[in-house]
Amino acid sequence: MTGLTDQLIEFMGTSVPEDAAAMMRLSLFDWAACGIAGADETEFDAFVGAQLALHQGGHKVFGGGSTSAPTAALVNGTISHALDYDDTHFAHIGHPSVAVLPAVLALGEQVSCDLDALTHAATIGVEASIAVGLWLGRDHYQVGYHQTATAGAFGATVAASRLLGLDVMQTRHALGLCASMASGIKAQFGTMAKPLNAGLAARTGVEATVWAQAGMTAAQDGLAGPLGFGATHHGQGGNVDLPIDDWRINSISHKFHACCHGLHAMLEALRDTAAQPDQIKAVHIRTHPRWMSVCNIQTPNTGLAAKFSYGQTAAMALLGHDTGAIGNFTDAMAQDADVLALRNRINVSEDARLSETQSELLITLSDGSTESLRHDLMSPMSLETRAQKLRGKAAALLGEGRAAPLWSATQGHSLRVFLDQLVMS
Predict the structure, then answer these.
(1) Same domain? 144 vs 285
(2) What is the band of 153 on the pLDDT scale with cuts at 50, 70, 90?
(3) Domain check: are 192 and 306 in the same one?
(4) Tens digits of residue pLDDT in 325-349
(5) Mean per-residue pLDDT of the chain
């Protein structure tokens, strides 16, 4: 069987199917909306300012300003993950777009490509990151590595190598260089360093590729070979074939709620309830065991903690508070009397029968009747429906006046027009 590194190199030149490219366009739009909204926040202003002061260049970053290609990838990757509202892939539990898109965007400026070439390279990179994540396996994630950062760095490198047209040996060296730089740990969750992990992965993709193009050499198989990245980072070395008939990007999951993705199946199920809050006696939520330690904070006291609470977000949704609005996740909401009263009637239990994308609910009403609800985030969704939902999300984040031209730009062919949207105030 061909090794993973060889598969990635061969896959780099694969033609991208229309459905996969269309999904990538939607992720590009969603990623950009998250990045523009992230730049509107002030938390990372000092970090961005320091980076722009240290590194000069003509590559644009969210919110305005320009810098070198590697630093643009670092900044844009970090800012687009700052709100933690970007896409996820549950096959390996990673956020693909925030690692891959900033890398190809920085280099796309450098080679003056069009948006078609950029999105095709990004699609290849996202597929590669998911494949590497699957190859590394759950042990890699469970021991504490952040797949967005580790698998994402290899995906960014593959995407960047395709965009710059690296040959087989140069790409092999780029992946070897990436193996020495890919990093990121889950201990950073809940801090500013979590989005930084995404930025570092994007920067790694740019630097490893540019260095290899310039003649830097590395291990022939720094990813999957003896003493390589997999062997030294708890990789399980599972079988991963590339390409596959149904590209994995087609099962990417976009966020439509401004909270932990583990809560989304439950919140989507609640969209179908007919229960009124004053009629609810109890709510029982069943979820996959892994989410019990991730997003089951029972008494969140802050808006940030509320994003990781089944009880809090379920109570908010049942009371009509829009969980897709970032502005609703505040300290005040975490202390709201009506929310707390309903939250106390909600309990959560694990159910190993359920997948990580599924949730089941049983609502008991005061008259003794019950309502059963269920949702799976992997349920089929047409591109048209997904696009409509993403446009609604972007409008809520940015306002329709900014979301509409951004949508038009991501569906066109001009990279320059798209870049102009990222820096508009």
Answers:
(1) no
(2) very high
(3) no
(4) 999 999 999 999 999 999 999 999 9
(5) 95
**Contact indicator for 397, 38 with CB cutoff of 8 Å:** no
Residue 102 has pLDDT above 70, yes or no: yes
Q: List the structure tokens of 81.
A: 């993950």
A 10 A CB-CB count for 302 gives: 14
Q: Domain of 362: which CATH number?
A: 3.30.1330.120
CA distance 162 to 97: 16
Shared domain for 183 and 242, answered yes or no, is yes
Report residue 34 CA to chain centroid gap. Answer: 10
pLDDT tens by residue, 392-419: 999 999 999 999 999 999 999 999 999 9
Per-residue pLDDT tens digits for 7-65: 999 999 999 999 999 999 999 999 999 999 999 989 999 999 999 999 999 999 999 99
Evaluate if residue 1 carries a pLDDT over 50. Answer: no
Q: Looking at residue 57, which CATH number applies to its domain? A: 1.10.4100.10
The answer on 268 and 403 residing in a single domain is no
Pair (247, 125) in one structural domain: yes
- Provide the domain limits for residue 307: 261-376
Please state the domain count of the chain: 2
Same structural domain for residues 57 and 142? yes
Co-location of 60 and 167 in the same domain: yes
370 and 389 together in one domain: no
**CA 347 to each of CA 92, 107, 292, 298: distance values in angstroms, whole numbers, following the listed order:** 28, 49, 12, 9
